[in-house]
């Protein structure tokens, strides 16, 4: 495949012509191995660096390439894990459903007091909580940092569980008799700090989804969770219809 010759006499600006041709080449998987650098595109198309930068900037905004200051652009990998937000979110189930192996590296599993979290659970600030922090992996690659707080009076039997290959909600129900049936979530985008970037193995400037969840068993709060998920592995879309109403999904 070759680059399309740009028309310098056309009404459409050169950056827009270049953008359209790069989209075409991406659609045809021409850049599967690597995306060309800025100087390579300047030489191939015979345009200025400003033209190339504008086209690549648009590709970056569309999520087709990933580029940061001082870094060579690279093709964005397609999001591969789907999780309907209308259902109880389970990263374990979502990863496994995508045909990948979910494993976790347990960083913390202990009992502690946290006044802020306790208040979110409707408890006294000094209430002891089981705290579980895991680095979640999909086929061995980091995908999320997951931090969970559970009331100790309910979750104490979980302190000796091996969470390396265990779904939390499964053992919460089987060992503790607590079944999470609903709750509320707040999802926002943010750029992780240096420590979390290192854990998630993402470059500078790449955003993540921060998911804050209050999980309930009936009307009783039984879980507070903060999860930071790599945004290059997920995208958020919305579907709605007159029949089914409005629903937010995490989908490829």
From TrEMBL:
The keyword Iron-sulfur does not apply. Residues 12-78 form the HTH gntR-type domain. Coiled coil: none annotated. It comes from the Bacteria. Keywords: DNA-binding, Transcription, Transcription regulation. InterPro entries: Bact_HTH_transcr_reg, Chorismate_lyase_/UTRA_dom_sf, Tscrpt_reg_HTH_GntR, UTRA, WH-like_DNA-bd_sf, WH_DNA-bd_sf. Transmembrane segments: none annotated. This is GntR family transcriptional regulator.
């Amino acid at each position: 495949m070759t680059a399309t010759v740009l028309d310098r006499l056309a009404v459409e600006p050169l950056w827009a012509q270049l953008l359209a041709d790069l989209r075409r080449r991406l659609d045809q998987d021409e850049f599967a191995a690597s995306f060309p650098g800025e100087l390579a595109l300047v030489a191939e198309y015979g345009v200025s660096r400003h033209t190339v930068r504008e086209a690549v900037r648009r590709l970056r905004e569309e999520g087709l390439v990933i580029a940061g200051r001082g870094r060579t652009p690279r093709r964005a990998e397609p999001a591969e894990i789907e999780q309907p937000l209308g259902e109880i979110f389970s990263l374990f189930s979502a990863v496994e459903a995508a045909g990948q192996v979910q494993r976790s590296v347990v960083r913390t599993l202990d009992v502690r007091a946290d006044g802020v979290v306790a208040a979110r659970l409707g408890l006294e600030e000094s209430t002891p909580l089981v705290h579980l922090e895991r680095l979640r992996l999909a086929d061995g690659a980091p995908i999320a940092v997951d931090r969970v707080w559970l009331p100790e009076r309910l979750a104490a039997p979980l302190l000796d569980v091996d969470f390396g290959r265990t779904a939390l909600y499964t053992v919460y129900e089987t060992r503790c008799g607590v079944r999470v049936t609903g709750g509320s979530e707040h999802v926002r985008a943010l750029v992780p700090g240096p420590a979390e970037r290192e854990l998630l193995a993402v470059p500078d400037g790449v955003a993540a989804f921060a998911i804050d969840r209050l999980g309930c068993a009936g009307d009783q709060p039984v879980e507070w969770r903060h999860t930071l998920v790599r945004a290059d592995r997920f995208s958020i879309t919305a579907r709605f219809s007159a029949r089914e109403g409005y629903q937010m999904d995490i989908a490829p």
